[in-house]
Each structure stands twice: as structure tokens, then as C-alpha cells.
Design goal:
The chain is mostly helical. It has four helices and no strands. It comes from Amycolatopsis rhizosphaerae. Keywords: Membrane, Transmembrane, Transmembrane helix. This is DUF7144 domain-containing protein.
């Protein structure tokens, strides 16, 4: 009897998507923490003489909180390899990188690290996204 299942070649690159999903969850949790701290303890962050771009610290607290919650959801959905999850992840990672760029005066080293991680997540999802979907379908 012939098997009707399709044989696919799985590469090690599918791990990059799982890395992207895990990093989105982690970055989302960090953003939620940043947002909650900015909302409830605004003296925690030291802001330079230029201040923050666009919003005050409370506004950035809400931005980080919302982006964080959405990033956790997108990171969890990314494990399924769904196209909407990949697109959402790229959009959220881009928005997060821009938000961190504007948050540089409050936390320069941390913001730079998060921007770099956002870029790696975007690369992983764009380049290796289809492999995660194929892996999920085989389970």
C-alpha cells in the first residue's frame, strides 16, 4: 500500500522560526514589564535632557504594554507557522524597534539590544518562515 503523505526535507533552519517565536514571547514579556514600570514607577527611568520622542513616559508605558501583549500572542502563534503570524511578527518587531529607538534616551543599552534582537527575528521569519509551517503540518 502506498503512502499518500508527502515527504519534505526539513532543514535546521526551521529552528530559526522557533527561535523567533521564543524571542517574540520574551521580548513581549520584557515590553510588558517596561510598560508596567513606566506606568506605575515613572521615576525608575532616567530621561536625558532631550526627553523622549513623541510621548511622555506614561505614553511610552502604554505603547510598550500594548506592543508587549501583542508580541506574546504573535510569538505563540508563530510556532504554528501560520502566514498571518509571520506577517504580524514582522510588523510588531518593526514597530517595537522603532519604539525602542524613541526610548533610547531612557535606556540606551537595553534599547540597542532589543533593536538588534528585533532585526534578527525579522530576518528569521522572512527567510525561513515557510519551513515552520511545513514542520507544523507534519506533526
Amino acid at each position: 500500500m502506498r503512502s499518500t503523505s508527502r515527504a519534505t526535507t526539513q532543514t535546521a533552519w526551521v529552528g530559526w522560526i522557533w527561535f523567533g517565536g521564543a524571542m517574540m514571547i520574551l521580548l513581549g514579556v520584557f515590553n510588558v514589564i517596561e510598560g508596567v514600570v513606566a506606568l506605575f514607577n515613572p521615576r525608575y527611568y532616567v530621561i536625558g535632557p532631550q526627553g523622549l520622542l513623541v510621548f511622555n513616559l506614561t505614553g511610552w508605558g502604554w505603547v510598550h504594554l500594548i506592543i508587549g501583549i501583542l508580541a506574546v500572542i504573535a510569538g505563540l502563534a508563530l510556532f504554528t507557522g501560520a502566514m498571518w503570524a509571520r506577517v504580524t511578527t514582522v510588523v510588531l518587531a518593526t514597530i517595537n524597534a522603532i519604539a525602542q529607538l524613541a526610548f533610547l534616551s531612557a535606556y540606551p543599552l537595553w534599547s540597542t539590544i532589543v533593536i538588534a534582537l528585533d532585526v534578527v527575528v525579522i530576518w528569521a521569519v522572512v527567510v525561513h518562515g515557510q519551513e515552520a509551517r511545513e514542520e507544523y503540518e507534519q506533526l
